[in-house]
Specification:
- The complex is a heterodimer of chains A (121) and B (107).
- Chain A is mainly beta and 121 residues long.
- Helices cover 0% and strands 56% of the residues of chain A.
- Chain A has strands spanning 3-7, 10-12, 18-25, 33-39, 45-51, 58-60, 68-73, 78-83, 92-102, 105-111, 115-119.
- The N and C termini of chain A lie far apart (40 Å).
- In chain B, strands 2, 4, 5, 6, 9, 10 and 11 form a 7-stranded mixed sheet that branches.
- Classes of the chains: A mainly beta (121), B mainly beta (107).
Chain lengths: 121, 107
C-alpha cells in the first residue's frame, strides 16, 4: 500500500524558515517523480514544486521560486521542502504527492494527508 | 503559464441529478488533464486521468471528456457521497495549474 506521511509543519514567524519532510513507503520511491501541493485555509489547491526521480529536473511555482527548495533522498525514501523567507501567504496545508507517468505526462496520483504551516507573528 | 478557468465555482444539486463541471485552458493542453475530488479535511483523490480515463475503483457514474482547451467532468446520477469539491489540473507544462474548484452542495 502506497503511504506518504508529511511532517515538519508548525508555526513560524514571517521571514523564518521551515523544512518539511515526506516519508514514502509501499512503492519504489526512487522510480517516481514527486510533488508538493499546498492549500491555503478555505482556498483551492496550488501546485508548488516537482522533482524528478533522480533529481535531474526540478520545477517551482513562481510564488515560491527563490525561496523554497525541493530535494529528495532516495536512500531514505524521503522528499523534502526547505522553505525560507516565509510570508503570511505561505500559510497552508502542504501535501506531498507521488507523480504518476503515462502518455498524458506526470500528474499526482497518491497524496499524503498534509502538514499545516502557519506563518504568523 | 497556462490558466485553468473552472466553472461553476459552486453548484447546488439533489441526489439523482446529473451535473457537469467545465474547465477551460488558456491554451491547448492535448488531453493532459485530470479531475480530483476533495472532501473537507481530506487529501484530494484522483477520479479521472488523461481527460477521460476513469481511475480504477471510481464509480462509473463519473466521466470526463474533452481535449485541447475545453474539458468536462460529468456525474450522471449524484449520490450522497459525491458532495465535495472538485478540481481540474493541467499537467501539460510547468507550472502545473489547478482550476479554482467547484463546490458541489446538496440542494
Amino acid at each position: 500500500e502506497v503511504q506518504l506521511v508529511e511532517s515538519g509543519g508548525g508555526l513560524v514567524k514571517p521571514g523564518g524558515s521551515l523544512r518539511l519532510s515526506c516519508a514514502a513507503s509501499g512503492f519504489t520511491f526512487s522510480s517516481y517523480s514527486m510533488n508538493w501541493v499546498r492549500q491555503a485555509p478555505g482556498k483551492g489547491l496550488e501546485w508548488v514544486s516537482s522533482i524528478s526521480s533522480s533529481s535531474s529536473y526540478i520545477y517551482y511555482a513562481d510564488s515560491v521560486k527563490g525561496r523554497f527548495t525541493i530535494s529528495r533522498d532516495n536512500a531514505k525514501n524521503s522528499l523534502y521542502l526547505q522553505m525560507n523567507s516565509l510570508r503570511a501567504e505561505d500559510t497552508a496545508v502542504y501535501y506531498c504527492a507521488r507523480a504518476h507517468y503515462d502518455s498524458s505526462g506526470y500528474y499526482p496520483d497518491y497524496w499524503g494527508q498534509g502538514t499545516l504551516v502557519t506563518v504568523s507573528s | 503559464d497556462i490558466q485553468m478557468t473552472q466553472s461553476p465555482s459552486s453548484l447546488s444539486a439533489s441526489v439523482g441529478d446529473r451535473v457537469t463541471i467545465t474547465c477551460r485552458a488558456s491554451q491547448g493542453i492535448r488531453n493532459d488533464l485530470g479531475w480530483y475530488q476533495q472532501k473537507p479535511g481530506k487529501a484530494p483523490k484522483r477520479l479521472i486521468y488523461a481527460a477521460s480515463s476513469l481511475q480504477s475503483g471510481v464509480p462509473s457514474r463519473f466521466s470526463g471528456s474533452g481535449s485541447g482547451t475545453e474539458f468536462t467532468l460529468t456525474i450522471s446520477s449524484l449520490q450522497p457521497e459525491d458532495f465535495a469539491t472538485y478540481y481540474c489540473l493541467q499537467h501539460n507544462s510547468y507550472p502545473h495549474t489547478f482550476g479554482q474548484g467547484t463546490k458541489l452542495e446538496i440542494k
